[in-house]
Amino acid sequence: TERCHNCQNVVAVLYCEKCEAMMCQQCFSVVHQSRVLSTHKPTYLKDKDKTNSTIELQVRKRKNTCITLHN
């Protein structure tokens, strides 16, 4: 189970395709408060069980650019 890429404290429940990051609900809300990032739509990981391994591989291959730039 993957931890939130922003806080690293809890299990990620959402994936942001544009940020290429998995996050908990609270971090997704905080990170995406700005007008620019508010257009990002989350994918709930529990609803996408078949794609979880693909998402995890994609995230591990790339740095969390969006989070790094906007923190």
User: Uncertain segments of ≥5 residues (pLDDT<50)?
Assistant: 60-71
The whole-angstrom Rg is: 11 Å
Fraction of residues in β-strands:
5-15%
Kindly state the percentage of residues in helix.
25-40%
How would you state the average pLDDT, rounded? 78
Secondary structural class: alpha+beta
Q: Give a quick account of the main beta sheet: strands, pairing sense, barrel closure.
A: 3 strands, antiparallel
Distance between the termini: 24 Å
Number of helices: 3
How many strand units? 3
Return the string of H and E elements: EEHEHH
| Net shape | globular
Strand order of the largest sheet: 2-1-3
Task: Provide a quick synopsis of the model.
By secondary structure, this protein is of the alpha+beta class. Helices cover 32% and strands 13% of the residues.
What features would you describe in this structure?
This protein has 71 residues and is an alpha+beta fold. 32% of the residues lie in helices and 13% in strands. The protein has helices spanning 25-31, 52-61, 65-70, and strands at 14-16, 21-23, 42-44. A three-stranded antiparallel β-sheet has the order 2-1-3. A hairpin with a 4-residue loop joins strand 1 (14-16) and strand 2 (21-23). The longest helix has 10 residues, at 52-61. The radius of gyration is 11 Å and the shape is globular.
